[in-house]
Structure formats: C-alpha cells, structure tokens
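Final report, section 2: Outcomes. Of the targets proposed, 16S rRNA (Guanine(966)-N(2))-methyltransferase RsmD is the one most frequently requested by collaborating groups, and we therefore present its record in full.
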Amino acid sequence: MTRIVAGAAGGLQLKSVPGDSTRPTTDRVKEALFSRLESYDVLNGSRVLDLYAGAGSLGLEAASRGARAVMLVELAPKAVAVCQTNAGLLNKAMRNELVSVRRGSVDTVLDSFAPVPGGSAGRSWDLVFMDPPYPLTNEELARTLEKLSLVLESGATVVVERSARSAEPTWPKGLEKFADKKYGETRLWFAEPIEFGTE
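The predicted structure is given below as tokens.
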C-alpha cells in the first residue's frame, strides 16, 4: 500500500496499480526526493506535472506539501483508474480540487501544451516528475525532454527517475542537469531550464 509521507494529507493511504506494470517510488526515495525539493523551495505554490504517473504518488505528495495544482498524466487504463481514485482521495482530504488526471501518452499531452506560433503561450509548469518505464530508450526520452523544455516556467525543476544502471538522459539545449543522486537501484536526475545562448 502506498501512502502520502508528509504534509497536510500525511499518512493518507493510496491505492496501488495492480500487477507489476508500474514501478512505485519507494518511501525512502520519496522522502529523500521531497526533502531535497523543499530545500530548493520549489514546492509551495507550484504547478506540478507528474508524467508516467503510475498511481500518482509523486504528484499527490507534492499536493500534500503545498503545490497549488497537480496534473497526473498516464496512458495505461488500470493506472488511469487508480490515479483518478487517488486524486479523489487527496482532493477530499485537502478539501480542494488540487489534483487532476489526464489520460494520454506523455508526448501527446506535452504537444497539447506547446506554444502555438502567433497564439497564446503553452502551459508553464514549475515542477515536473518523470518516471518513465525502463524499456523507454534514451533516444525516446530525449525527444520527450525536448518537448517538455518548451512548457516549463523559468526557474522550474525537472526530476527524472531511472534505473541506476541506465545512462544519463540526453538533455536538450533548453534543459541543463544540475544534480543527480543514487538510491540503491534508483537514480534521480535534476535539471532546470536554461535560456538559449547562455553559458
């Protein structure tokens, strides 16, 4: 059983996705991750995107700890149903509609946010979690990161969770890694948007 570790909804029990199609972030990694994010002061009032959300535990944790809006993005029907259930539990506990669920592929959802030439700017996100399935290649991840770089707020933080045996993601020109940390079989990569033409 997954739970919210801390914050206004700390201790809330969440549903897990049945079967082994998803890879939940362990409580140890989650606690370490959110301790770091709180030290960066990026949680309070942030707009959060949880990509490849699984059961949505990272986005829901962010909502409990002060995010002002969270979107869980998931494609697999069973995981979408669990995300919807967990979002409902969190929203009820917080007495606020903080968390929404978007069904679709990550690339398609990111494309829908992208700025349109001559039109309005795309959605801007302050904090993004990406826990892609292990079979996703580094080339596929690089294309997704490039799409993501177009919809980030200045000063945003991107967290990519991968197997400790996976190569470092290939960062697009709009994103720059500033930290990484290994926790057992998991490695977290932290990146931020950069302006083109800057060093």
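The mean pLDDT is 91.
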